[in-house]
Amino acid sequence: MKTLLLLGSLAMFLAVALGAFGAHALRKKLTEDTMKVYQTGIQYHLAHALGLLLLGVIAENADHSSQVVLAGWFLLAGIVLFSGSLYALSLTGIRKLGIITPFGGIAFLTGWVILMFAFA
């Protein structure tokens, strides 16, 4: 439970820091298309970092807290794989990194489905 809150806080910090970095340092260095890719990474990073914080709070009171924690690990994996691959793709221009992105999306979806079944 506390681990999810710690990881969620760290993920939020990184999302804000990377968002600011993108808005200021990368604005003139990235093309419009690669900036959109980077911003998509930021959006999903922020949303799922908030999800991690929410799961940390939910896990404190849930009957199925182990499932809630498992869902959190999938959200974290999604942030790393989905957002991380989009950051790397936009910064390096290596299009093959996009192969990783769907695995992050699957991790996000899996985390939310696990949470759904925890309360079904």
From TrEMBL:
It comes from the Bacteria. It is a multi-pass membrane protein. InterPro entries: DUF423 (IPR006696). Keywords: Membrane, Transmembrane, Transmembrane helix. The chain crosses the membrane at residues 41-58, 70-91, 97-119. Its main location: membrane. The keyword Lipid metabolism does not apply. It is found in: Membrane. The keyword Transmembrane applies. GO terms for cellular component: plasma membrane. Belongs to the UPF0382 family. This is Membrane protein. The lineage of its organism: Bacteria, Bacillati, Bacillota, Bacilli, Bacillales.
